[in-house]
Each structure stands twice: as structure tokens, then as C-alpha cells.
Amino acid sequence: MTTSPDTAAVEVSDLRRRYHGGFEAVRGVSFTVRRGELVALLGTNGAGKTSTMEVIEGLARPSGGSVRVLGRDPIRDRTTVRPDVGIMLQSSGMPGDLTVAESLQLWAGTCTAPRPVDEAIELVRLTEKSGTAVKQLSGGEQRRLDLALAVLGRPKVLFLDEPTTGLDPESRRATWSLLATLLAEGTSMLLTTHYLEEAERLADRLVILHEGLVVAAGTVDDVVAAHPAQIRYHGLRPPTLVGNETVTVEGDRVTILTRSLQGSLTALLAWAAASQIELAHLAATPATLETAFLALSAERNGRLQSEIRDEVTV
Ligand SMILES: Nc1ncnc2c1ncn2[C@@H]1O[C@H](COP(=O)(O)OP(=O)(O)OP(=O)(O)O)[C@@H](O)[C@H]1O
Predict the structure, then answer these.
(1) Cβ(22) to ligand 1 under 6 A?
(2) Where would I find the ABC transporter domain in this sequence (predicted)?
(3) Which of 161, 167, 213, 225 could form a disulfide with 172 if both were Cys (CB 3.0 to 4.6 A apart)?
(4) Of all atoms in ligand 1, which is nearest to the CA of residue 162?
(5) Same domain for 257 and 193?
(6) Average pLDDT over the chain, rounded to whole?
(7) Whose CA is nearest to atom 19 of ligand 1?
């Protein structure tokens, strides 16, 4: 079945997922993955990423809302969706006695137009292990085999659940490079990750979940821009600087949150110089994806800004 190139790769609308026992892990999530784009689904443990992915992958039914993959229902239209989709779960579940090459050959039999097995093995740099039994692979090598299985059928849409967890830094970079190549070739991707650097490097857009809800979405710049920069020092409370700051003082620890880092810092230094005041341990930090992510989780948990600051500075 063909679909219009204008159809979104993935369309999630007001998705809900309630488990037996009544717990609602996904509580009305909506987002889109456009064609040729990589969207990273982020969130703290238990945010609902896997619960959402499993519905999109057609492995579980939603209890509300809808999911479309290339315009089709991943469960009802399973036979037409499946050939266009590659899925990398947290474990592929291949029999441990099969070798790497045998696993891929077996899987190739289920694909419509698979890559040559040797090419898939080469893509994930497992050539030297092609005759090794799956159960003898290291955790990182198994992850790479999982990725080879996911890309074997030349999917139009790739779903990746924590694709680089357990990989050493070199293999992680090699995986990023492979994903960037697939992206450049037009593959659409949705991935979950706990590595913010991975999201920053690869993602066109982010969707951040917390307790089953979308709490932020957009490009990395969009998400970061919604959070203020910080200036910290030990000393006296400053006067009004450029006027848009939030100042908190705990003992002699002063924290200034500002949307105009340069302006606030210039005014602060001018005040300190004119008043001959020392700003001990002065530090100025722009918002980063990490501070934005921690702030979003902390805001939702009702925690104090000072706790976030301590986590970011350790
Ligand atoms: N089978 C289940 N029955 C009941 N609750 C479940 C079940 N599976 C997951 N949950 C709950 O649903 C919530 C979301 O879990 P989910 O695995 O989707 O989170 P996640 O964002 O993928 O987390 P992680 O980053 O730890 O993988 C959690 O509170 C979890 O305890």
C-alpha cells in the first residue's frame, strides 16, 4: 500500500494507555513525527516513554486516542504497516544459539526487500562477530545486533527504544553516525533515550514526557529558550538589574534567574564595582538542555529551584 509523501510518519493524538489494575501511564499525549525527521522522546524513569512507544509500534492497544503510522493503524493495518517499519526494542529476543549472521538471515526471511545480511552486519560493525552465537555477544554487541535487525528491511520509519544504552563511547558515536546517515537518506525516526547529548546531536525535535503528559516539545533551542540562565555568587542581594530577574537568597548564596544573561551580568558587575562589593564564587550559566530537563521534572514534582541548582552543579 502506498501513502502520500505528505502523510506524517507518525501521528499520535490524545493517546491514553491504562494498565490492568487501572493505572493510567499515558494520559493524553499528542505529537507528530514528520517524514524524514528524528524525534526524541525524553522523560524521567516511569514518564511513559515505553508505554507510548509500544502502542505506536502496534504491540499494545491504546485505551484512548489514536496512533497512525504512515497514515495507518499499527494494529488494524498491521500487515501493510509492518514492511515499512523497523523496531529496535530493548531486547530483540533472538534465540541465543543462533549466530549473528543466522539471526539476520532468519529475520531477512520476514522482510519484503531486505538489505544483504553482510551489509547490515557491516553497518553495525559486527563483521568479526558474524559467526558468534548471540548468547556469547557482549551487551553492547547485542545492542548493535538489535539495531542491525531493525534496519535490515530498509524501513521508512524506525522506532528505537534506548538504542545506545550499554554501548561504549566509541560504539555510541558509531551508532549516532549510522542513524545520521539513515536520516539523511530520508528514514523517519522516533527514539527514546536517557542521554541528553544523544537527543541534542540527533533530534530535529524533542517531546518531553512527565507522568504520562507532554510537558515540553519543540527543537532543542525552543525547549532551552523557555528556561532562564542562572547567575550565582556568595554575597549581598543585588539591586534591580535589568528588571526581568528572579532573585533568591539563602544565607549568603544568591541565585539570579534571568532571560537576559549578558544584560543582567553587566549590570551586576557594574553594581559590584561601584559599591566595591566582592561577588565570591561568581558563576554564570546559560540554560542547557540538562538544566531545562531537570527544571521541567522538578517543577512538576514541586521541588525547589535550589535543589535543581545543586544537582546541576555537582
Ligand atoms: N504492565 C504494567 N502494569 C502496570 N503499570 C505499568 C506496567 N508497565 C509500566 N507501568 C507503569 O507505567 C509507568 C510508565 O512506565 P514506562 O515503562 O512507560 O516508563 P518509561 O518512561 O519508559 O520509563 P524508563 O525510562 O524507566 O524506561 C510507570 O509508572 C510504570 O510503573
Answers:
(1) no
(2) 10-236
(3) 167
(4) 27
(5) no
(6) 90
(7) 46
Report pTM.
Answer: 0.85
> Phi first, then psi: what are they for 110, rounded to 5°?
-95, -5
Provide the residue type at 273 as one letter.
A
* Domain with 254 in it: 226-313
Q: How far away, in angstroms, is 39 Cα from ligand 1 center?
A: 20
Q: Residue 100, Cβ neighbours under 10 Å: how many?
A: 29
The ipTM, to two decimals, is 0.97
Distance CA(21)–CA(212), nearest Å, equals 16
188 and 35 Cβ atoms separated by less than 8 Å: yes
User: Distance from the CA of 214 to the center of ligand 1, in angstroms?
Assistant: 15
Same domain for 201 and 232? Answer: no
CA separation for the pair 206, 144 (Å, rounded): 24
Residue 92: its pLDDT value, please?
66
Atom index in ligand 1 nearest the CA of residue 212 equals 14
| pLDDT > 60? residue 2 | no
Domain closes at, from 218, 243, 268: 218
